[in-house]
Design goal:
CATH architecture: 3-Layer(aba) Sandwich
Radius of gyration: 15 Å
Strand content: 15-25%
CATH topology: Lysozyme-like
Helix content: 25-40%
Number of strands: 8
Strand order of the largest sheet: 1-5-4-7-3-8
């Protein structure tokens, strides 16, 4: 794990590598056509927004995502895109596919369920840049919320203006 620090910049995408081992390494090219947006926070005591505590929480549950976006907009890459991360759980895409982890890139926003705790503008700006970057490299069919693929089981991303976000990722 590296502790390098980069901040989001207006027209620049910078990513901090904090590679973890909670993804399935694959030797074959995988077909990515879905982006799933999630929310997470540290619920095990201490600072609820602490990146390292959230990563430890992922380790405890043996889950991860490809990217994690901190409150200041810093983007952390946890699993390389060529590998499968365990972020979707039991879920289904609108076209009926159920192996969501194998065809998607997962992005987590650090925020809580508290209605006063929405993603920051820095997080939304970084998310927009990251999604646009991913879309420039893959033929993305869906950009979905975790709650879209696991209704009744998941409610995230929390407190986010989804319609505004979808309008802002269009190029």
């Amino acid at each position: 794990m590296t502790n390098a620090t980069y901040a989001w910049s207006q027209n620049e995408l910078r990513i901090v590598d904090k590679t973890v081992n909670f993804g399935m390494r694959t030797t074959q090219l995988r077909s990515v056509d879905v982006i799933i947006v999630h929310s997470v926070y540290n619920n095990s005591g201490g600072d609820k927004y602490n990146i390292d505590l959230v990563i430890k929480q992922f380790a405890r549950y043996r889950v991860s995502s490809h990217y994690l976006i901190g409150r200041d907009g810093t983007i952390y890459q946890l699993v390389k895109e060529k590998n499968i991360s365990f972020h979707a759980g039991k879920s289904q895409l609108p076209d009926g596919r159920t192996a969501v982890n194998s065809c998607s890139i997962g992005i987590e926003l650090i925020t809580t369920k508290d209605s006063l705790d929405a993603p920051t503008e820095h997080q939304i700006n970084s998310l927009i840049l990251l999604v646009r970057d991913i879309k420039s490299r893959y033929k993305i069919k869906y950009v979905l919320r975790h709650s879209d693929i696991a209704p009744g089981r998941k409610t995230d991303p929390w407190n986010m203006n989804w319609e505004d976000f979808l309008m802002r990722i269009k190029e």
